[in-house]
Amino acid sequence: MQLRYSFRVYPTPGQQQSLARAFGCARVVYNDALRVREVARKAGEPFVPSAVLSKQLTAAKKTDERVWLSEVSSVVLQQSLRDLDTAYRNFFDGLKGKRPKMGPPRFKSRKDNRQSIRFTANANWRITTGGKLRLPKIGDVRVKWSRQLPSAPRTVTVVKDAAGRYFASFVVDTGDETSLPETDGQVGVDLGLTHFAILSDGTKIDSPRFLRRAEKKLKRAQQNLSRKQKGSRNRGKARIKVARAHAKVADARREFHHQLSTKLIRENQAVAVEDLAVKGLARTRLAKSVQDAGWAQFVSMLEYKAARYGRTFTRIGRFEPTSQVCSVCGVKDGPKPLNVRVWTCGACGAVLDRDINAAVNVAKAAGLAVTACGAQIRPAPVPAQRRETGTHRRPAPVGQ
Length: 400
Ligand SMILES: [Zn+2]
Prior knowledge:
The protein is of the alpha+beta class. Helix content is 38%, strand content 17%.
């Protein structure tokens, strides 16, 4: 199985210039190729194959306008063409319904938040004995190795994010994983609005303090930015602060998702999660996109960790009405407004916690053996047996 490992890197000012040039060249190659395909499409001509684009790139390097493309590793430019192919494939697969729909490839801009280039094995990049990252036509870049790579990586992507930080991201083959010891644990997870996650055993999980603190700082930075005069130098500074705070929140969130997904996979043999598409109700667009992105990241971590450690992972389809069904008796009780946090089942009388009930239903829909105990605030009142009504209950006789 393949995993991605990212490390912060610290290029010197000179290396930063070389990287900026490489980002720029990769972008130009991408945009040139996209333009060729767009022109062909508008003229009603067939899709231009990548081999043709590759030949055009080689020819372009010999022209005066594009001669500077030779200043960067040719692998970087070829990989940029590959990225365009991937973008097209994703777009076409979306149209065919093989994956979520997405827009056609778009032109890249130097103002994009994320700039990146990729080196494959062909590019002769390597990790030096001194632990630096040697990149062709860029140099030996200092890396902060925060953990050990499980095996030698084949490709490295160098990324510059919106906060001006640089990262090296390696794709590593992890080989056969040693599975975790088997457990009896089975759990359904409901991703909520009031809590980050609710488990079918009744546990409610909120985002940790380090994430909330980072979010608070981001909010303050954004308020500060909005007070600054447009075009002023202070506004420029405030904008960088916002970008940094954004990056910190993203890091903190990823860290939290790692911690929680590892814990769930470690403690459970089977994990079930509701498909996220159901959740799109009653939220503003911004809040929705932010939250969905976070959930998607968390769910994909659960999925790959489950695969890695031999656990069962199930995604429950979007048409299971998990919040409408009583997890005790299974009767569908109809939709309830979001502000209803606790409800009483009309059929069996169980008093249910909305979120935990949903998590239990997610687990049940996945065929997991969980009980509805956690979902019940109060169990259904047990109807009195006929012959007991009207009589005083005597304590059961103690055995002799
Ligand atoms: Zn019921």
